[in-house]
């Protein structure tokens, strides 16, 4: 695997930002790595960070590079600060950045596939919210979306971080039912004829977001949206996410490549 630490300028944000990228590499003699890389452009997983983290955190806290090596998949990890992957009411347009500009820039720099069946998104906590927002709001672009201990119900965030919530989303009334509300997006997808992405959701039973995850799982099922849901003992911590990101890679509907 090749690791690229990429600093670049974002026209959408009007500032310089960063992403870390892991690219497949076919190796034979590398000790301790089962590496594969097919021909052509690589399938890609956009891997999103949580509220207090940045683009380096998945590499620092998990073995994502080692796990991804056997699948021949590229991993793109962007920095979005505390934006909730949203065009902020008072701040920067991080939704436009992550949904439009980031994939275009990443494909211009690296040999990444633009085919829907080769594009996936996953994240933890705030990143789980971002992953499901991308999957539900842009079902024509992503074959699968995975949330690990995701912030599914923004009532929790509003209760504990009201000022920050309003800086990002505006008032609670304007948020509810908007294109930033996962429940509204799920209901919208249920009524549409769009091809639905595969969804994976997990949360530890001791996680403070557990009840919110169960609520959203049930909402998806009530709207006849299929979701692979898993729970087991676990808290909001990296030991759990390291285990589950490995599971996500196993679950992804990766097309067979030569």
UniProtKB/TrEMBL annotation:
The keyword Hydrolase applies. GO terms for molecular function: acyltransferase activity, transferring groups other than amino-acyl groups; hydrolase activity. Keywords: Hydrolase. The keyword Hydrolase applies. It comes from the Bacteria. PANTHER family: DIACYLGLYCEROL ACYLTRANSFERASE_MYCOLYLTRANSFERASE AG85A, ENTEROCHELIN ESTERASE-RELATED. This is S-formylglutathione hydrolase FrmB. It comes from Paenibacillus phyllosphaerae. The lineage of its organism: Bacteria, Bacillati, Bacillota, Bacilli, Bacillales.
